[in-house]
Structure formats: structure tokens, C-alpha cells
Amino acid sequence: MARQKAATKKSASKKQNSAKPQKAAPRAVRKQPKPPFPEQGISPPGEEAKMDPRPRYEAPAYRAAAKLQGMVALVTGGDSGIGRSAAVLFAREGAYVALVHLPEEQKDADETLRAIGAEGTEGISIPGDVSDPKFCKKAVEKTLKKFGRLDILVNNAAYQQHRESVEEVDIEQWDRTFKTNIYGYFYMVKAALPHLPEGGAIINTSSITGLEGNKSLIDYSSTKGAINAFTKSLAQSLAERRIRVNAVAPGPVWTPLNPAERSPEEMQEFGAGTPYGRPAEPEEVAPAFVFFASAADSHYVTGQVLGVLGGETTAG
Ligand code: NAD
Description:
- The protein has helices spanning 2-19, 81-92, 106-118, 133-147, 171-192, 209-212, 218-238, 264-268, 282-293, 295-298; strands spanning 72-76, 96-101, 123-127, 152-155, 201-205, 244-250, 305-308.
- The chain has 316 residues and is of the alpha/beta class.
- It has a single domain (66-308), classed as 3-Layer(aba) Sandwich (Rossmann fold), CATH 3.40.50.
- Helix 2 crosses helix 9 and helix 5 packs parallel to helix 7 (218-238).
- It is globular, with a radius of gyration of 22 Å.
- The protein starts with a helix and ends in an 8-residue tail after the last strand.
- Nicotinamide-adenine-dinucleotide is lined by residues 45-46, 76-77, 79-83, 100-102, 105, 129-131, 156-160, 180, 205, 207, 250, 252-253, 255-258.
């Protein structure tokens, strides 16, 4: 009898053991490229297809859970970089995606469309300039015409040009940076808002420069600071309608934005000053956009600026 009991106990404990994880899941960790980076040889606005190493947007460790099933997202600057990776993860979560981008970036947009298709949904590319309010209206109309609804707006397009001093920032540059980075966000919100349902989301791409400032990016940093205040103010104003408004503020990210306008010498050590000692890859930033897009994840979260900063803790 005692022997039988012991045997039962033994087989029960064996069963328990087999339910335990056999080994640690390795998929969350993929080794990412770090400085020094080679010369990229690209110019503004920056073709991602020409970069080496290629920015990583595929997020192989990211498993979908149908969080955005049947929803529609519009992502400005969705052809490349952070916007591309967010668009691909949205598609993995079941969303259809409209990509707004500069006409010069059609090749990058085509690659993103293929990647969206490979996730099992569909995308459209809408080339144009977000600093033109008429275009922003048209972009929303085209999205509605194609997909019939709009649930998520990602304001992510940006213009950036480093200058050594404020004297070097001319009025034309100041205007272009503001017209793209903050006027463009406002125009897109005006165009999209009448169509966003309860539970919809607006996500604005900010930057560490909007929290800390940057002496070589005075105009750009100022727009990013404005984006943070815009995010919080809009969140307050739309809380009753249950439309969440949040921002993602990355540190350095390996995308065409910086190598397109900075010297190879500067780019060689890009991201080396972060506690991680390297820039983020777009695939490491994109899940923050899914978090804010998905009501299942962030229903009670609005008006937040989420830093994705590789260990930097003083910003904000
Ligand atoms: P990116 O060059 O891949 O994306 C920028 C996109 O903006 C381009 O695809 C371009 O088509 C689009 N764009 C620019 N001007 C436009 C206009 N007038 N109309 C329509 N589209 C326009 O670079 P990225 O780094 O992925 O940038 C995405 C966002 O991330 C930006 O808001 C940027 O400020 C922010 N950001 C980037 C970094 C970084 O280090 N790369 C760091 C912090 C924040």
C-alpha cells in the first residue's frame, strides 16, 4: 500500500515537473548592432533600403494576440524607421494600415506594404506632405475610402536637421521643422478626429530631445516639447470621448533620420552615450505603439509620454 502511494506520488510529481518550463525562452533577446557604425552614404529624407546594417523592424520575438483585429491605423512616416516597425506590428495584431510618407520614399513604402501583407492584412501608401492641411484631409479620406473606418492615428513624420548654433538655424528651417513636426500633427488630428470611435487612439512620436533639449537641435527639440504638451492637452480634452492620446519618446534609434543628415564621424558613435551603449532598433520601439493603440493594454492610460531610452533615467 505504502509502495503504491509512493508510486502515485512519484508519478504526480513527474507530471508536475513536465509542466514546468524546460528552459528559459530565448526569444525576447536578439543581439542588436552597436557602434562603431560604417558610413551610410544616404541623404535627406533618407532611403532605408540603402542602410547597412539594415534597421530591424521585423520584431521576431513579438507574438501577436489579435489586439487590433479588424481595426484601421494611419501612420505618418510609416514607410521607414519607427513608423514602419509600428505599422508591421499593428498588422501582426490584425490591423489594416495606411502609410503616409514623402513621395521620394515610395521604395521604402513599398517594402513596408509587402511586410504588412506578409502579416496577413493589407496596407495602402499615401504619398504627400503633412505640412499641407489639404493633403492631411485627403489622406484620411483615402484611408476611409479604402478601409471604411479609422481607429488609430500615429503622428510620426518628422523633419530634423542638426545645426551647431541658433545663428545657423534660418527662418526657413525653423518653419519647415515646425510645419512638419507639430503643425502636421495638428492637421492630422483635425482630419482624423471626426472619424475616430470611442476606444480609438492617437499616438504621437516625441523624442528625448523634447524632454531634455538638445543644443544642436533647437528647432526640432522645441517641436518635440510642443508635442508632449499637445499630447497631454489633447488627452484631457478627449478623455470624456474615451479617445486615448499618448506619446512615445525614444532616444537614439537606428533609422535613416540621423545618418541622412549627419556626418559619418558623428554617426560612427551613434547611441554610444546611452547606458545600453547603442541605439534602439525600430523593433524595440514599436511595441510601445501597440501598447498605446490597444485598448486591451492601455484603456486607462492617456496623456502619457513614454520614454524608450535604453536605460537613460534622467529625462522627463
Ligand atoms: P525615418 O526617416 O525613418 O522616418 C521619418 C519619416 O517622416 C520619413 O519616412 C518621411 O517619409 C516622413 N516625413 C518627413 N517629412 C514629411 C512630410 N513633410 N510629410 C510626410 N511625411 C514626412 O525616421 P524615424 O527615426 O523612424 O522617425 C520617426 C519619428 O521618430 C520622428 O518623429 C522622429 O522625430 C522620431 N525620433 C527618432 C529618433 C531617432 O533617433 N531616429 C529619436 C527620437 C525620435
